[in-house]
Amino acid sequence: MNSPRGSRKTQEKPEQYRTVASLIIERDQLKARSMEVGVFVGVVLLCLCLAYPFIPASSTEPTKSTSAFIQTKERCLSYNVAAQLQEFDNSLFITETFELDVKHELVKSGIYRKLPTRIMLPSGNEMTLSYSRIGVTRTSFHEHPDGIVESFPLEQTSEKNLLKLQIGDPEKKLEKGRQVFELAYQVTGAVVNTPEGLTVRWPVNGELPFAIDTLQFALSMPSHVLAKAHGAPQLSSFVQYREFEKQGKQARTRMQFKKGPKGVVRTVEKEEGEVFREFIYRTGLDPFSVLKAEVSIPFDPPHDGSA
Question: What are the angstrom distances between the C-alpha of 105 and each of 36, 75, 113, 140, 173?
Answer without folding.
Answer: 20, 10, 18, 18, 12
